[in-house]
Amino acid sequence: MFDLDRWQEIYHVLRKNKLRTFLTAFGVFWGIFMLVIMLGSGNGLENGITQNFGDMATNSVFIWGQQTSVSYKGFPRGRRIEYENSDILALQKGIPEIKYLAPRTNVGGYDGTSNVLRKLKAGQFALFGDFPVFNQIDPVNMVKGRFLNDLDLKEKRKVVVIGQRVVELLFEKGEEPLNQYIEINGVYFKVIGVFRSKRTGEQASGDNQRIHMPFTTLQRTFNYGNTVGFFNVTAKDDVPVDVVENKAMDILKKRHAVAPSDDDAIGHFNLRKEYDKMEGLFFGIRLLVWIVGTGTLLAGVIGVSNIMLVVVKERTKEIGIQRALGATPINIISQIITESVVLTTFAGYFGLTIGVGLLELINYLLSSSGANTEMFVHPGVDFKVAVMALCILIVSGALAGFIPARRAVSVKPIDALRYE
Amino acid sequence: MINIKNIHKSYVMGQSRLHVLKGIDLEIKSGEMISVMGASGSGKSTLLNILGILDNYDTGEYSLDGTPIRKLNERKAAALRNHLLGFVFQSFNLISFKNAMENVALPLYYQKVSRKKRNIIAMEYLERMGLKEWAHHLPNELSGGQKQRIAIARALIAKPKVILADEPTGALDSVTSLEMMDILQEINRTGITMVIVTHEHDIAARTEKTIKITDGIITEIIKN
Ligand SMILES: Nc1ncnc2c1ncn2[C@@H]1O[C@H](COP(=O)(O)OP(=O)(O)O)[C@@H](O)[C@H]1O
Ligand SMILES: [Mg+2]
């Protein structure tokens, strides 16, 4: 229903005191603007942090060896725990809840690098011996070729899958790396695949400087014998990874004569727990944003309600005339509520669009400047959230108008008419 | 048309209580034109506002066109004011941001008559008042007499049965006042009941009956 008289009245009321209308509208504008900016920034932070996880299965646990802190079964404390191939089978057999088990050994230990040569170029890169299943747990984007497969392991092939940064550093621009050979610690390996990390920022550049070869090849070529560096284990989808973690600890403690009470001998890192902690943090941020944001918005809406009270008071006589001519309470109330809703929605709509626009601009500037913004990725708000905010606005606009409207019709028509 | 029996009305202001109407009995037949006179503060406006369902009363009975008016909810009161009653006030009470035509059309807005249709009807009434050329002027561009004629047109547009006028000529010069009485008399001849509050004798003299109120009671009814 497009009711010209109603809009004429709204226009008249809002225009009559332009500064007041502007200030009131600004309160609402600012409320929704801040809400959008804060939600968007929160999302940016969240995106930044979750992208550090890449596509890694969060239901997973890392297990590595440390030193015992309790003497046990005749062994002194301070003994280094080292895993070997037989542990792989024992874990696989002992824990039916395992989905993927990926043992890994890296040359030079954690954070160690190896000298890699290719023609006249050279570089230092991390070198891993892996199982094909590793790419299920912490997947990479294959740019060229393929990842390791079972046959590579079985035949202990001298093949490698290398990160994109490795290619950039060891090959000429435009040169095809596939099926070329690179020399690692004096041994030649054929490049069968090139990958790119799914993470962003610093983590990604670390990933992209890695070289993966078959687990078995690494053990034999670089004299690691039976040694396993660490295990990356994921649980089946319906099983919490803690179950797998605890069972694995028990099995490994038994096999390596570690005291059941010794918590230092076996290092373990439960990704699920970290992820949950992070989720808790995000939830906290989101909650805070909503509390502060809706608080600001509420202040704006209360401003509207106050102004509507003043407006209604100013128009008391006019409302009295309308009632003498036959306006029902519903007529009056809906008129005032419409005014209030128009004001809040209009102002809120501007706040919403300008807020979203600003986020888009930041997004554009971030991506076009190519800045390394690891902690802040794609700030923005959901369309659903935007619509919800607008709905909140309309409802609160109606509420803001309701109290003044009720007041307007609660007086007797004659008292309204006599009001000067 | 209007039937009131033993109406009492007091205004309460804090501790004190002002007994304004002290038992009014009055019967106004359909098509009658009566005037109400009395000293300032005697309760004339109070009575007229009760008749117009703009104000409530304490005790007594009031029936308007057969409908008992007592503890009416505001929605029904609004409907009665809209369909049965037309008001003419001393201070015109036009809406400042609406032009003459829109002001006249307003009662039909509350009857949900379309804007186009009610503006056509409003133009007819403005023409009857000789104000067709002023239809698109705002109230503050018009003289007092013109404003009051617009108010009368507005009171008539919903074809009410009763017109209640509280000192309709109070803010007008004597020539315009007489013009206004001509118009009101003409309206009365179409069968509309009319109650006019005034303290001018020559105005009262042009009605059929004059009711004198003194200190909240009817002291005299004069046939003119
Ligand atoms: N809303 C009100 N509150 C308190 N006293 C009022 C109110 N309206 C009128 N009065 C008092 O009631 C008396 C009658 O008023 P009114 O009916 O307006 O008289 P009249 O119209 O005859 O001059 C006056 O003394 C006036 O001061
Ligand atoms: Mg009076």
Could you name the CATH class of chain B?
A: Alpha Beta
Q: What characterizes the major β-sheet of chain B?
A: 6 strands, mixed
Helix content of chain A: 40-55%
Overall tally of domains of chain B: 1
**Order of the strands making up the biggest sheet of chain A:** 4-5-10-7-9-8
Topology of chain A as a string of helices (H) and strands (E): HHEEHEEEHEHEHEEHEHEEHEHHHHH
Overall average residue pLDDT of chain A = 87
CATH superfamily heading of chain B? P-loop containing nucleotide triphosphate hydrolases
Estimated radius of gyration of chain B: 17 Å
Number of domains of chain A: 2
- Overall shape of chain B: it is globular
Approximately how much beta-strand content do the residues of chain A carry?
15-25%
Cα distance, first to last residue of chain A? 33 Å
Largest sheet of chain A: 6 strands, mixed, barrel
| Number of DSSP E strands of chain A | 13
Cross-sheet strand order for the largest sheet of chain B: 6-7-8-3-9-10
The topology string of helices and strands of chain B comes to: EEEHEEHEHHHEHEHEE
Number of helices of chain A: 14
Distance between the ends of chain B = 20 Å
Task: Report a brief summary of the structure.
The complex is a heterodimer of chains A (about 425) and B (about 220). Chain A has about 425 residues and is α+β, with helices and mostly antiparallel strands.
What does this protein structure show overall?
The complex is a heterodimer of chains A (420) and B (224). In chain A, 55% of the residues lie in helices and 18% in strands. Chain A folds into 2 domains: 4-53 and 276-418, no CATH class; 82-255, no CATH class. In chain A, helix 1 packs across helix 12 and helix 3 (85-94) packs across helix 9 (241-255). Chain A is elongated. Chain A has 420 residues and is an alpha+beta fold. The two termini of chain A are 33 Å apart. Chain A has helices at residues 4-16, 18-51, 85-94, 134-137, 150-154, 164-170, 201-207, 215-221, 241-255, 271-314, 316-324, 329-369, 383-410, 413-418; strands spanning 60-65, 83-84, 98-106, 114-118, 121-130, 141-145, 159-163, 181-184, 187-196, 210-214, 227-228, 230-235, 266-270. In chain A, the strands form 2 sheets. In chain A, strands 4-5-10-7-9-8 form a 6-stranded mixed β-barrel. Chain A is built from 14 helices and 13 strands. In chain A, a hairpin with a 2-residue loop joins strand 8 (181-184) and strand 9. Chain B is of the alpha/beta class and 224 residues long. Chain B has one domain (32-56, 73-223): P-loop containing nucleotide triphosphate hydrolases (Rossmann fold). Chain B is 34% helix and 30% strand. Chain B has 7 helices and 10 strands. Chain B has helices at residues 44-51, 74-84, 100-109, 115-128, 144-156, 174-189, 201-204, and strands at 2-13, 16-28, 33-38, 59-64, 67-68, 85-89, 162-166, 193-197, 209-214, 217-223. In chain B, the strands form 2 sheets. A 6-stranded mixed β-sheet of chain B has the order 6-7-8-3-9-10, sandwiched between helices. Chain B has a 4-stranded antiparallel β-sheet with strand order 2-1-4-5, with helices on one face. In chain B, helix 3 (100-109) packs across helix 4. The model of chain B has no long low-confidence stretch (mean pLDDT 92). The A-B interface holds A 4-5, 8-9, 12, 317-318, 321-331, 409, 412-414, 417 and B 49, 52-56, 74-75, 78-79, 81-83, 87, 89, 93-98, 102, 106-107, 109-111, 115, 154, 158. Magnesium ion (MG) is lined by residues 44-45 of chain B. Magnesium ion (MG) binds at residues 44-45 of chain B.
